[in-house]
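Illustration 12: HMA domain-containing protein.
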Amino acid sequence: MPSHAFNVAMTCEGCAGAVRRNLAKLEGIEKVDTLVADRKVVVSGTASSDDMLAAIKKTGKECSYIGQV
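Figure caption equivalent — predicted structure in token form:
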């Protein structure tokens, strides 16, 4: 299953929780790892990276796609 990494401007666990909740709404998401200290999110699943990025952007946090890992 593919995993995708994103840079996300998270400053606390509240931010990370918002990211996880938005990604959980997508079909095909299997696992979400939020690394607040690194400002990085790694998502595993069959959803497209574009859909994942759009879901993260809905949190209002600055974010960008790093690539498949």
